[in-house]
């Protein structure tokens, strides 16, 4: 427990800074625990969020412009996000708060680094024998009375699930959040079929109603303020447009969605882990909506990316301990659900989806990205992501993990993304399965440059940089020149459109002398005095 | 070629070279102290759940008010008599109007404050999500030290459905404001009560 918590315990001043304290009931069970301590589990913020004044209403910046296969201009979308200071600040602070909660949670476990090593090694092993583990999983699932299907790509997944729904005469489908179905474009595909798809995760539902993709793998609507949500709900569910209290909005969504859950003919969930030895699908959620999707309708479908396999139940003892602590800083999600056999009188289907994964397995520098357990820690820690928003990437996966996964889906469209990184390596440091994310970002830059997938300007700059960096004398001359140039050049020469590093940041103050020059002057030629 | 065959063939062709042995997972020392009941309760509370000891006169004292205020109680335990018989429920949707569900946990986990249910304890799985509030009976002797110990239990290999609940349904998808009862139960109260005591 932090000092913050203790300060907040007593007195009415506790509620300072809360959004609409007059709306939140004094005896609200959510805000505080049984002993009166402020709760921060699930995705809860660890400090009260100060309410932005309504007068300062700011339209939500939208994501990257999608123009077919043309390269995404992430920088352009990021600039629009930066130009919306209320959104940018809220987003940055919110995610940094989650990152700090992650640090507190991990520091509480002495074996944290050992768990990361284990998780990484278990995943590497499973991926190196993925064919065998998939066959084992399939055999177990079939023995459990589950129908198992295989889909080579997203299109086949969508057709397959659509056919299942049609064969069962389903008119509506409730689903829980699944990055795989986002990747497959499932919702867009279903829009033309006459079968209604209803997202039941609050964040994902907000995004569906606003006709936007999720911007974060764990918190789909984290880029939106409560005012944005109030606007979306007023338009689509008829709520009071003036009431932007989070409690009111969440409750309205509950009341609105519940009848749809009860009437749904089918339910679909994603999969966090698929256990080969038992044929079990494991989902980790906070809202309980995956359990509603799996336990209420008569037809139950689980969409599984083939890289989700782990060999044995005992390995959940490693991954479950890592997942939510990395994602949100809580020891576990509210619900960790293990679906193995159909309920009596119902049908259970599992769809194993490849969609490029088997091909990625053969990419020497990039196959370990398949270890990803979609915790989002790399996004929360990334300075670029926090200040540009997930939608600026124009791809299913944003942030550092997106930079190394997205180009495997479309090299041209996502050719610019690996350049949206400062290469600080923080993503690699927080990754619970130890993917060398920043090194893969760099490797992608090389691949894309060699294949001429990057713009000419960047290519020219990199070629020049390469020539300078490969010759020490030229490098030193260039540094000296650049430092004195930075001191003497007028601002317009440094902060111009050709120098992307001058955008949105000040150039560092230049040292009076380079280290090399200092060393030559002070240490070299002074004999061996020491 | 079927998609199954194509996927498996591509995987075999693209297998990463080198040997990646499956590591032995060591048994880690528990993060919790010896008083498992206290540790369990402390962690459950941090996850938004509530914990109660049985009262001396009325063992259900802690939840009596909630039960009294409820029109429909679905009980899956012999200790409490409800007015919605779970064995007579034709379909999960029939539980939409349940105010309080009472269920016994298979075990608890001190590391996280979680409780485990399978389809046997729930009778109808959906009752644990469609009810407005959940009351859980837990024998203090059934508390395991950590998640690692939990996953060595046989339930995960044989249950059709097994679920760890840690506190109530929660969301903070709107500006990080924590709200209980996103879609599932609005509260979860664990009552420490030995099996067969009442």
TrEMBL record, chain A:
Every 4Fe-4S ferredoxin-type domain range: 363-384
Signal peptide limits: none
Disordered: region residues: 1-69
Keyword Iron-sulfur on entry: yes
One Pfam family it belongs to: Fer4_8
InterPro entries documented for this protein: 4Fe4S_Fe-S-bd, 4Fe4S_Fe_S_CS, FTHF_cligase-like_sf, Helical_ferredxn, LUD_dom, LutB/LldF, LutB_C, NagB/RpiA_transferase-like
Compositionally biased intervals (Basic and acidic residues): 17-41, 55-69
SUPFAM superfamilies: alpha-helical ferredoxin, NagB/RpiA/CoA transferase-like
Keywords: 4Fe-4S, Electron transport, Iron, Iron-sulfur, Metal-binding, Repeat, Transport
Name of the protein in its database record: Lactate utilization protein B
Gene for this chain: lutB
UniProtKB/TrEMBL annotation, chain B:
Domain of life assignment: Bacteria
Chain ranges of the LUD domain: 93-193
Transmembrane stretches, start-end: none
Protein's recorded name: LUD domain-containing protein
Species name: Methylobacterium iners
């Amino acid at each position: 427990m932090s000092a913050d918590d203790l300060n907040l315990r007593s007195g009415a001043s506790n509620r300072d800074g809360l959004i609409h304290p007059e709306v939140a009931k004094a005896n609200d069970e959510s805000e505080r625990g049984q002993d009166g301590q402020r709760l921060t589990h699930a995705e809860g913020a660890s400090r009260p969020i100060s309410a932005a004044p309504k007068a300062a209403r700011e339209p939500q910046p939208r994501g990257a412009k999608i123009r077919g296969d043309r390269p995404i201009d992430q920088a352009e979308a990021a600039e629009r996000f930066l130009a919306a200071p209320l959104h940018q600040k809220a987003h940055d602070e919110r995610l940094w708060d989650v990152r700090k909660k992650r640090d507190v949670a991990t520091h509480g476990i002495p074996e944290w680094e050992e768990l990361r090593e284990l998780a990484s090694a278990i995943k590497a092993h499973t991926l190196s024998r993925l064919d065998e583990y998939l066959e084992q999983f399939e055999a177990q699932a079939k023995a459990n009375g589950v129908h198992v299907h295989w889909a080579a790509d997203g299109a086949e997944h969508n057709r397959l699930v659509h056919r299942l729904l049609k064969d069962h005469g389903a008119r509506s489908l409730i689903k829980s959040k699944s990055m795989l179905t986002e990747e497959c474009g499932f919702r867009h595909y279903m829009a033309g079929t006459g079968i209604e798809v209803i997202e039941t995760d609050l964040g994902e539902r907000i995004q569906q109603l606003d006709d936007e993709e999720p911007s974060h793998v764990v918190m789909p609507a984290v880029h939106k303020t409560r005012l944005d949500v109030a606007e979306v709900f007023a338009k689509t569910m008829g709520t009071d447009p003036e009431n932007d209290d989070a409690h009111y909005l969440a409750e309205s969504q509950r009341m609105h969605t519940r009848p749809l859950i009860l009437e749904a003919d089918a339910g679909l969930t994603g999969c966090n882990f698929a256990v080969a030895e038992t044929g079990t699908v494991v989902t980790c959620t906070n809202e309980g909506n995956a359990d509603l999707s799996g336990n209420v309708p008569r037809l139950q479908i689980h969409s599984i990316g083939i890289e989700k396999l782990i060999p044995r139940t005992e390995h959940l003892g490693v991954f479950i301990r890592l997942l939510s602590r990395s994602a949100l800083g809580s020891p576990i999600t509210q619900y960790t659900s293990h679906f193995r056999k159909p309920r009596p009188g119902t049908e259970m289907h599992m769809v194993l989806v490849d969609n490029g994964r088997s091909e990625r397995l053969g990419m020497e520098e990039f196959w370990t990205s398949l270890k990803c357990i979609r915790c989002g820690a790399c996004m929360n820690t990334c300075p670029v992501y926090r200040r540009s928003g997930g939608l600026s990437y124009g791809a299913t996966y944003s942030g550092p993990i997106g930079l190394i996964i997205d180009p495997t889906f479309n090299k041209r469209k996502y050719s610019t993304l690996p350049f949206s990184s400062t290469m600080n390596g923080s993503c690699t440091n927080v990754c619970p399965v130890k993917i060398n994310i920043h090194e893969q970002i760099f490797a992608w830059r090389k691949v894309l440059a060699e294949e001429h997938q990057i713009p000419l300007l960047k290519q020219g700059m990199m070629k020049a940089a390469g020539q300078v960096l490969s010759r020490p004398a030229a490098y030193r001359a260039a540094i000296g020149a650049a430092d004195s140039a930075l001191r003497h050049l007028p601002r317009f020469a440094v902060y111009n459109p050709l120098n992307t590093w001058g955008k949105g940041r000040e150039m560092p103050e230049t040292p009076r002398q380079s280290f090399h020059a200092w060393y030559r002057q002070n240490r070299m030629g002074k004999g061996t005095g020491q | 070629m079927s998609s199954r065959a194509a996927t498996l063939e591509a995987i075999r062709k693209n297998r990463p070279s080198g040997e990646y042995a499956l590591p032995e997972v060591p048994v880690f020392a528990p993060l919790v102290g010896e008083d498992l009941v206290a540790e369990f309760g402390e962690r459950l509370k941090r996850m938004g759940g509530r914990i109660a000891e049985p009262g001396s006169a009325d063992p259900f004292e802690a939840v009596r008010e909630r039960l009294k205020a409820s029109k429909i109680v679905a009980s899956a335990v012999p200790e409490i008599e409800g007015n919605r018989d779970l064995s007579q429920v034709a379909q999960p949707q029939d539980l939409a109007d349940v105010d309080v569900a009472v269920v016994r946990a298979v075990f608890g986990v001190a590391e996280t404050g979680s409780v485990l249910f399978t389809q046997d304890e729930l009778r109808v799985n959906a009752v644990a999500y469609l009810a407005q509030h959940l009351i859980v009976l837990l024998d203090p002797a059934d508390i395991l030290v950590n998640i690692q110990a939990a996953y060595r239990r046989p339930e995960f290999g044989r249950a059709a459905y097994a679920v760890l609940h840690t506190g109530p349904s929660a969301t903070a998808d709107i500006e990080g404001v924590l709200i209980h009862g996103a879609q599932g139960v609005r509260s979860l109260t664990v009552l420490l009560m030995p099996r067969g005591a009442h």
